[in-house]
Design a protein that fits this description.
The structure holds two protein chains of two kinds. Chain A is mainly alpha-helical. Chain A contains eleven helices and no strands. Chain A has one domain: MetI-like (MetI-like fold, Orthogonal Bundle), CATH 1.10.3720.10. The two termini of chain A are 37 Å apart. The N terminus of chain B is likely disordered. The chains are: A mainly alpha, B mainly alpha.
């Protein structure tokens, strides 16, 4: 109880206490929303599965068992086996590592990039703004998937290049958000105060503007993750993303295409994993938006 | 497949001007200028992808067994000995004169290939958007007028699935279920194999061509093959359109004029379909336009699944063969159509909405 009082203290005595208190309020607000709890649980399960894959998976991801090829789902193989006798359930579990890696790396590359472009653009205004935003708008009005495909085609197939291509196509949305946020705080008095103290533009942007953009960025990034997972799976499906024998979910569906008419489980099972994880990010993103950005509730 | 909207719901206020025609003219010029600049940006990106990223574009064309003379000749022929801005200028001139280069895998000019494959994509996406609008709009309206009801919950779930389900997976499941098990629809491809090539292409749209020629048997066969991929595409636009319609309708239904109408005793059906629905038609056009553009993009995946001889299939085949001219040509065409539809729906919004005038 004492911890709770400390967290909810109206006059926090340190920055650490204020931050912890805010995080606690967001967390409890999220717990009140059933869908965001479901989303959160799905993401936590995904992370745990990725970490514990070596212990959770009953079989190896690449071990072949040709005597048992294309076996239907049973108590031995919960999701059946594929054309090389590999256990699909185990491959789906190992695949969670790949999905999590893709999602994390795309977020880590594109969000800071967009944040920086948007903040610089909004803070300086004028020609810098026009130039950067013109560039951003051109990227925004392109079809994302096609652009990603073309980039991968030039860079060469593979999971790293797929990640780069997806990141290149997803930063502009973040730049737009960061610019809008920056414009609203640029003329605030505390920014003027910092400037009068002689802070450089770099310091103002990094120390004072960027932290205020983070909450809307977190919402948008979480909501976008479903799209990132789908694009990555799409690249894998076409054969430009993760290469065999990597157990990437999209690539697994692509392998199962040949058998879809008779051995339906090969292609369908990894699809369920994609749907569940994407739904998880959607739920969590919706919940975060309701909590952190009450203005846009119900949209 | 993501169809995240980037539309401005609140139109930018335009200062009242003295002369209507002058403003209309400058708006037109502004529109043409943005479309042109965006298109130039698209060209810059495809140029960058085709000429700058690959370590050696010449090697990609002549292969690594070519002799030095052949290599040099190809390098000069491709204009790669010139500085980048000059190369870019030549590229832009070529594209505007309709030259997208030669496809390595088909051996024909890319433009010719694209014009042959584009109608198939157009046909599928158009039927898809018709399905999406015909079902999505009424469903969205009903969901909004009965908020919290079973149908509202269903729309919610469908909307979420539209954001989290891979299009190619839904296509495969559809094939397994409706083609292999139930035999309700035709399999991959546009026609059964023995009908192939019987109808001479006029528009390239099989449904139209077969009707013009009076070949009803072929028409039904084409419908049989088209209905599943178009429905899969339609599902994704339905999910998005229904969600947006619902949210627009909820905005309207909470307005005071709706309450006034209800208090006056106007029947609920009229309140919903006239008072509340009429004002949202304009933003809906933007949503439908965006969704249509999104379908053209989404058809890339669907065409791969259904072996649909459209531009998406052409693109993926070219991707796997590292046929860069074909890849960039398709990217350019899909991108240009996408930009164009985007901007057109933007303009329509301004023209049709009296507040934005």
């Amino acid at each position: 109880m004492a911890t709770r009082d400390w967290l909810l203290d109206d006059s926090p005595s340190s920055r650490w206490q204020a931050n912890a208190g805010r995080a606690y309020r967001v967390f409890t607000a999220l717990l009140r929303n059933p869908l965001s709890v479901v989303g959160g649980v799905i993401i936590i399960v995904l992370i745990l599965t990725a970490i514990l894959a070596p212990w959770l998976a009953p079989y190896s991801a690449t071990g072949q068992d040709l005597a048992n090829r294309l076996a239907p789902p049973s108590s031995l193989h919960w999701m059946g086996t594929d054309e090389l006798g590999r256990d699909i359930f185990s491959r789906v579990i190992w695949g969670s590592q790949i999905t999590l890696t893709i999602v994390l790396l795309v977020a880590l590359i594109s969000a800071p990039l967009g944040l920086l472009v948007g903040a610089v653009s909004g803070y300086f205004g004028g020609w810098t703004d026009r130039l950067l935003m013109g560039f951003t708008d051109i990227f925004l009005s392109m079809p994302k998937l096609i652009l990603a495909l073309a980039f991968v085609a030039a860079l060469g197939p593979g999971i790293n290049n797929a990640i780069i291509a997806i990141a290149i196509t997803s930063w502009p949305a973040y730049a737009r958000i960061a610019r809008a946020e920056t414009l609203t705080i640029r003329n605030a008095e505390f920014i003027a105060a910092v400037r009068l103290q002689g802070a450089s533009p770099l310091r103002v942007i990094v120390q004072h503007v960027l932290p205020l953009c983070t909450s809307s960025m977190i919402i948008r990034v979480t909501l976008d993750m479903a799209g990132v997972i789908l694009t990555a799976a799409g690249l894998g499906f076409i054969g430009l993303g993760a290469q065999p024998p990597l157990p990437e979910w999209g690539a697994m569906i692509s392998r199962g295409r040949t058998f879809i008419l008779d051995q339906w489980w090969v292609a369908t099972m990894p699809g369920f994993a994609i749907i569940i994880v994407s739904l998880g990010f959607c739920f969590l993103g919706d919940g975060l938006r309701d909590v952190l950005d009450p203005k846009s509730e119900g949209k | 497949m993501s169809l995240e909207p980037q539309i401005a719901m609140s139109p930018t206020p335009v200062a009242p001007s003295r002369r209507k025609w002058g403003r209309g003219l400058s708006a037109t010029v502004g529109f043409v200028a943005t479309v042109f600049l965006t298109f130039l940006g698209l060209l810059a990106i495809t140029f960058f992808i085709g000429r700058v990223i690959p370590i050696d574009p010449v090697l990609a064309v002549v292969g690594d067994r070519a002799s030095n003379e052949v290599y040099e000749a190809a390098r000069v022929a491709m204009g790669l000995d010139q500085p980048l801005p000059v190369q870019f200028f030549h590229y832009v001139v070529n594209v505007f004169s309709g030259d997208l280069g030669q496809s390595v895998s088909t051996g024909r000019p890319v433009v010719e290939d694209l014009s042959r494959f584009f109608p198939a994509t157009l046909e599928m996406a158009t039927i898809g958007i018709i399905i999406g609008v015909a079902l999505g709009v009424p469903l969205g309206v009903i969901a909004a007028s009965r908020q919290g009801s079973v149908i509202d919950q269903i729309i919610r779930v469908v909307g979420l699935l539209g954001y989290s389900m891979p299009a190619f997976w839904l296509g495969l499941v559809g094939l397994a279920l409706f083609y292999a098990r139930l035999r309700w629809v035709g399999g991959p491809g546009r026609l059964d194999i023995f009908y192939d090539g019987l109808v001479e292409p006029v528009t390239g749209l099989l449904l139209v061509d077969s009707l013009i020629k009076g070949e009803f048997e072929i028409f039904w066969n084409a419908v049989h093959h088209l209905i599943l991929p178009a429905s899969v595409l339609g599902f994704f636009s339905l999910a998005y359109i229904a969600r947006m319609t619902r949210s627009f309708m909820l905005d309207q239904l909470s307005q005071e004029f709706v309450t006034t109408a209800r208090v006056k005793g106007v029947p609920e059906r009229v309140v919903i379909w006239r008072h509340a629905f009429n004002p949202i038609r304009v933003p809906l056009i933007t949503v439908i336009g965006l969704s249509y553009a999104g379908l053209l993009e989404g058809s890339v995946m669907i065409e791969t699944v259904f072996s649909w001889p459209g531009i998406g299939n052409y693109l993926t085949t070219a991707l796997l063969n590292a046929d860069m001219n074909a890849v960039l040509g398709s990217t350019l065409v899909i991108g240009a159509v996408f930009i164009f539809i985007n901007k057109i729906s933007d303009v329509l919004y301004r023209v049709l909405d009296p507040r934005a005038r």
